[in-house]
């Protein structure tokens, strides 16, 4: 929905195809658009699946621009469809493996809190989640200790998103929960040290415990692929030049 405002402000009519898992937000915005008196046809919401509704928009000869947020795989399909139709402009926000770098002169408590929220907010379901946390070696152990403590305390704040005390709700659906748990299992098998979480929370709903891995290395799957869940991977570094090179060593744009 963040793409809607700029498109309208620059004089365009818009067709919004929300994710099939979450159509209600876009439909509610559409009701507000109608309520405030936008002319018919300026803002249009078309719920549906990507391979039908999304593909139709991507291939349509009268659509001049596609702005997409989602997986890299689908982004490539949209790029291909744009080229095969009317060479429409596209902007793609297709995942990330964002690095967060903590140097040894940082306020550790403040840095731990910042890193915590950067990956666990919105249940980790953000393409800009700081899922690769680089910590300088002289403060690494202390940082990990405090991060694990904060993650374990966060378990008490899981639950109903409508409850006032809740700080972490469920994943978008059961498929995504299972995908995250699979990545956690891969992390363990590849030698990362699981220090907090790592399991489904409760027996109902698609909840995943706040999870912290230490001793993560760049070649591990959890350090290379987008997990899109509440999983913090903490890596160790020595020098500025080293960590810049490692932080930039990703296939993602974010």
From TrEMBL:
**Name of the featured protein:** aldehyde dehydrogenase (NAD(+))
Q: Where is the Aldehyde dehydrogenase domain?
A: 1-254
Residue positions of the active site: 93
Instruction: Tell me the protein family, please.
Output: Belongs to the aldehyde dehydrogenase family.
InterPro entries per the UniProt record, alphabetical: Ald_DH/histidinol_DH, Ald_DH_C, Ald_DH_CS_CYS, Ald_DH_CS_GLU, Ald_DH_N, Aldehyde_DH_dom
Q: Which UniProt keywords apply?
A: NAD, Oxidoreductase
Enzyme Commission number(s) from the entry: 1.2.1.3
The Swiss-Prot or TrEMBL record annotates one GO molecular function as: aldehyde dehydrogenase (NAD+) activity
Q: Which Pfam families match?
A: Aldedh
Query: What are the top taxonomic ranks of the organism?
Result: Eukaryota, Metazoa, Ecdysozoa, Arthropoda, Chelicerata
């Amino acid at each position: 929905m963040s793409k809607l405002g700029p498109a309208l402000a620059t004089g365009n009519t818009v067709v919004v195809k929300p994710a099939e898992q979450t159509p209600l937000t876009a439909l509610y915005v559409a009701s507000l658009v109608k309520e405030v008196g936008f002319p018919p046809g300026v803002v249009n919401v078309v719920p549906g699946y990507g391979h039908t509704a999304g593909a139709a928009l991507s291939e349509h000869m009268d659509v001049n621009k596609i702005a997409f947020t989602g997986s890299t795989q689908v982004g490539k399909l949209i790029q291909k469809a744009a080229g095969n139709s009317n060479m429409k402009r596209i902007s793609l926000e297709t995942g990330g493996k964002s690095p967060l770098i903590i140097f040894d002169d940082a306020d550790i408590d403040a840095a731990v809190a910042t890193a915590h929220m950067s990956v666990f907010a919105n249940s980790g379901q953000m393409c800009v989640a700081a899922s690769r946390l680089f910590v300088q070696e002289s403060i690494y152990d202390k940082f990990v200790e405090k991060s694990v403590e904060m993650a374990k305390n966060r378990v008490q704040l899981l639950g109903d998103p409508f409850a006032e005390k809740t700080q972490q709700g469920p994943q978008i659906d059961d498929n995504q929960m299972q995908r995250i748990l699979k990545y956690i299992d891969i992390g363990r098998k590849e030698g990362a040290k699981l220090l907090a979480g790592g399991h489904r929370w409760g027996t109902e709903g698609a909840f995943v415990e706040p999870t912290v891995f230490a001793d993560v290395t760049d070649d591990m799957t959890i350090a290379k692929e987008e997990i899109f869940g509440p999983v913090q991977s903490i890596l160790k570094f020595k020098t500025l030049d080293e960590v810049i090179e490692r932080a930039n060593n990703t296939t993602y744009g974010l």
